[in-house]
Input
Amino acid sequence: MLRDGVDIKMTKNRPIRQWKQAAFYHLLVWAVFISYELLCLFTTVGLDGQYLHYGIYYVMYISLFYLNAHVILDFSFFKTKSPYLIAAGLIVVEMIVFGLLKAVIDGLLAGADAPWLSLKVFTRAYLLSNIFRQIFFIGFSIAYWSMLYLTRFRDQAQQMEIERLRQQASMLELENRYISVENAYLQHQVSPHLLFNSLNFIYYAVYKLSDRAGKGIMLLSNLLRYSLTAGSAQQKTIELKQEVEQIRNLIGLDRMRFNEKRYLGFKSNGELSGRFILPLALLTLVENVIKHGECGDPSAPATAELQLRGNKLHFSTVNKKREKTAYSTTGLGLNNLRKRLQNAYPDRFELQVNDEQDQFAVHLSIDL
Output
């Protein structure tokens, strides 16, 4: 059935398809995560427990993940007037209740008559291991909820803005305003990559209780804050030295993920102060190198170089191609970047891509 040129049946089925697709991706991510953990345990200390026990523990922690996101955080931020304070208090209560429940289940699985008394739950090792395990899942739950929240409301705001502009503005005004909304939307597509590329490292650092975790989380926090604030529709340009600082943060975070066995060099020449650039433009190119390039070969290190000559900015990346990559090479990131550059610097930029058999190189020139 058609109404105003729209298939109503297809429109109604779209949320169902989206829900099924989201459920599939959630199941896939958890399957990969659990397989990775069990593989690490098997190769290090061995799997000495029963599979049923592992299943019970993963069901508990996955339930904690979704309970924190869809109950605690949704309630605190959508139904209260002091969301941060209430969320913090509820999370503390949640951790205490979960810890006690975990102690009881540990005792039951151990076959104790009085499980909540038989376990040495107040020993330092037991408490720390359980607390940090909870912090790990709650932390990722907060990151998941934040991305879900930002994505939902940013998309709604952008779609409403686009529709309002189409109906009320003149063709010239519509074109200028639409460019700002499109830029924000394209930057929004770039931002989540920064988080997902670092999830594996954060898990490893927190799980091992390493001092590196603090530094890694701080770098990731800076990157997320920068990508979200710089990606707003009002923020059309950013100071060049801030973009360069985040490039160094991204490279540093990548090196920490691989125990410094990464060979990606970055250098800049020229005065950065007082210069402004399209947000995330240079960061996207460096991220592309990390995602798809071979940065672990000391004989063929990847490079990124920034040069300022008057008002002319030159930025280039060169990397050896990786034989196998976990990411599909769709070219979406470079295509989005080209659109944003065209909107921001019409006829004032040049983006050259040299895709050879063993090497990938990109050169960007902008007249600032």
The chain has eleven helices and ten strands.
